Amino acid sequence: MAQYSGAGQPILVLPEGTNRFIGRDAQRMNILAGKVLAETVRTTLGPKGMDKMLVDSLGDIVVTNDGVTILKEMDIEHPAAKMLVEVAKTQEDEVGDGTTTAVIIAGELLKKAENLLDMDIHPTIVAMGYRQAAEKAQEILNDIAISADDRETLLKVAMTAMTGKGTEKAREPLAELIVDAVMQVEEDGEVEIDHIKIEKKDGAIVDESTLVQGVIIDKERVHPGMPKKIDDAKIALLNCPIEVKETEVDAEIRITDPAQMQAFIEQEEQMIKDMVASIVDTGAQVVFAQKGIDDLAQHYLAKANVMAVRRVKKSDIEKLAKATGAKVVTNIDDLTAADLGEAGLVSEKKVSGDDMIYVEDCKAAKAVTLMVRGSTKHVVDEIERAVDDAIGVVAATVEDGKVVAGGGAPEIELSKKLRDYADSISGREQLAVAAFAEALEIVPKTLAENAGLDSIDCLVDLRAAHEDSVVMGLDVFEGEVTDMKEAGVIEPHRVKKQAIQSASEAAEMILRIDDVIASSGAGKEMEGMEGMGGMPGGMPPMM
């Protein structure tokens, strides 16, 4: 990019080959990227949403309708589109569900903003209006939230999250397992989701999924001579190797006599023997080591009838500590009987051709494992994603104790109240608040479209129904407006709160950009953006 001085000499400010989009061009391009991304995931929303098949460069296939998974797997290069992917990731991290909702609201806010920009309303005014609307929306959401944290509500929340995600047939038994798992790890009103481990194995139907009061480790015993099953087991957790330590610095041992060699080997053996003896003396019957276990140590442990597992992941060791009450020990010499944990049963079982260690029947286990089953690898992967979402929403409901109706009911209510609020505002922000209200209707509209219903009729019916009740939503199976609370279609308050907050903030940020400067290496994503060349494979416009 060059500027010309008074003498007609070009002054280079940016290097050769830099791409730059200024003003309305930059805004149009960013808005278009946001709209296309929202259109891509829009068809997956709701119980009747369709799935996407994503194939990566290695030919690996992912079949899913989980918004965040689709966006993560797509090789997105456009910078504005990447900002919307962040919205989905934040939604996933904070609540675990509602990722598609967040992205389509953000896309619709950008679409409505484009109309306002065409009316010569300044982007800052639009952004300010959106911020006001988002704050008001949070107040309205708090007003329409329903207090509930009983088991029945939690089951409904879990089933709503899993509807339309490949778990349809077994959502009731799965919901029972999920609620049990969350209630088990809940401490003082807080739920640490990391303490619920999900293991998946194909080769069985979904109904065969189970909840283990303890931890399943995807490993096997280190030695075939070790016991396969131990009742009332005492468990030691080590994050150090059971082998002779290597010297920290390069050291050389000079041996001049064969007898010295023999003595050296015997000394090493004795050290390992002592290590094993100190473990066995504490009364430990099962050892989980985060690092390696020497071949000789395996032999001595097997002789002592101790089951041992090596190279266990750090996260699994932490879960085992939570489940069994054991302390993680860094030095074998420090291990005492007080550091051991307990489990009713530790056994090695074959699941779908792989050996796995089950640590179950733990008293007051604060870590549990959901063993998710499915007929094939792709099926079980999608079930795992649905279960993961459901755990997130049940945990959010337990922590907050607040829910809202599903089926587009909160969005219609927010839209109605925000229209009234817009009328009370003077200035051009009023138009932005009204646009925000309209944008929220994309959720029930999309639910209707994905179910093959007439979206305009459905919206009209919903608006009319909301004159009387805030819980009226769209039953896509029957194709009519019904009481969502009665129908058991319930979502956590936090899902909607987070979706609206992050969608509006992302839209505001994108609207404030009026200059995109891309270095020569990154410029290719932007070129031909009008034809949507910034998406993988030059995706055609989906407007």
Rounded mean pLDDT score: 85
Bin the strand percentage.
15-25%
Q: Summarize the main sheet.
A: 7 strands, mixed
Would you identify the CATH architecture of the largest domain? Answer: Orthogonal Bundle
Question: For this entry, what is the oligomeric state of its chains?
Answer: single chain
Query: Which structural class should the secondary elements be placed in?
Result: alpha+beta
By CATH, the superfamily of the largest domain comes out as GroEL-like equatorial domain
Q: What is the strand tally?
A: 23
Name the helicity range. Answer: 40-55%
| Shape, per Cα inertia axes | globular
Distance between the termini: 33 Å
The number of distinct structural domains comes to: 3
Kindly report the CATH topology of the largest domain: GROEL, domain 1
Could you walk me through the main structural features you see in this protein, from its secondary elements to its overall organization?
With 543 residues, this protein is of the alpha+beta class. It has 17 helices and 23 strands. The protein has three domains: 17-147 and 405-531, GroEL-like equatorial domain (GROEL, domain 1); 149-210 and 367-400, 2-Layer Sandwich (GROEL, domain 2); 215-364, GroEL (3-Layer(bba) Sandwich). 46% of the residues lie in helices and 18% in strands. The strands form eight sheets. Strands 11, 12, 13, 14, 15, 16 and 17 form a seven-stranded mixed beta sheet that branches. Strands 6-19-22 form a three-stranded antiparallel beta sheet, sandwiched between helices. A three-stranded mixed beta sheet has the order 9-18-10. A hairpin with a 2-residue loop joins strand 16 and strand 17. The chain starts with a strand and ends in a 25-residue tail after the last strand.
